[in-house]
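My convention is simple: the sequence line spells out the residues, with the fold written below as integer tokens. I include a record here:
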Amino acid sequence: MWGSSFTACYGISLLLIGDRLVVGDNAFVSTLTSESFTLPAKVLGYVLRELHPHIPYVVVVTEEISNETVDELRRHNIDVQRTEKIDTPYLADHKATKFQYTKIRLWSMTSYSSLVHLDLDTLPLRPIDGLFKCGSFCAAIRHSDMMNTGVFVFKPSMEVYNDMVVKSSLQNYSSYDGGDQGFLNTYFPQTKRGPMFIENDTNQNPPCSFPYRPLSASFNYDIGMYYLNGGRALLSPAIIHYTMGPMKPWKWWAYPLFDINSHWLAARDGMEKSFSERRSPDIELVWTLLVAAFFSAVLYKVAHIYVCDRLLAVRGLTGRFEYLLCPVLFVSLSFLIAFHSVSEQTRPLPAWLFAAAVTELSLIFGGLLYASLRRGRRASAVAAAKFLCLSVAAACSIPTGFVLFSSFSARVAWLLVSGNQ
């Protein structure tokens, strides 16, 4: 009865296997409008393929994405389709790239019966193919009365698509955030009033009775709510949504502050191992620790041989305010230099160790130049040459074999940091 009602409502062929409804021509889909989200797209594609090897994953890319990136995604067995970006009608007030209406294009993908859209900052933790049983449009209502469209289920339709295109160009057709999320909230207001979609409830009404349904928060698990609740999960997440912008899980500085990011990092490990995109984690750890030991030894020698003596000489020439302020400025500037010297998508461990080494080097070199200036000497290439010579002399106090080995490992670490995107 349920199956015949579904077929009558949507004209879609289906197959009932046990208690699972399998609908033909389903797919997962995401939109990619920025090159910086290429790595998340590869990780999400890997996870979906591991969970659902027979369901395709489609990434719709706009004109901002290069052909090289498209080829890279296809090497990861991702179906890539190009489309044109749809700008928000509120472009004057919302210039950021995230404020656009490109997701409207998804409704024109009528070769598919049903699609589950996933933002690239989401991560499924278990099979989610039960979502294909939902109605014409389903999305989660989160911590407000608005839907979050990071995850939603829909049925493509040219009629709906054409209507959306017309309405998306109207400035009087409201979007509370100036982007497609606000537009979809206005276009599907009835979703929040429908009965909750229950994934495994075989007794619920067929989707044609309630074509618009809210999804459980487990399908759009906001990590912000997780941390506001003291790091306690109120429900078991099916899909994690990494909503904290500066702390996305592919940014090295987000570790180890946010424990829930470890799920994404484990998925990245699996993806890179599957496609041989990096060396073994154990080898990487060994090289990084060797580099850290080398830099620590050099900095210890340099600090005690030269820099500390110079700064002690300056201390008698400075006032109390300068004496207190300069260390704060040195530390802040050194941290900024280190922060910007490492690509944001570098793996956390080598990134932190490399950044720490750069911070220490910047502190010592900055102190050297400042001491030279305050003693009335020119901060020239001579001062830099002295610093480099003393660094080499300090390194020579370490056994020669270790220095040579560490120099080689330093090169390896640099390749890891600069090339591991």
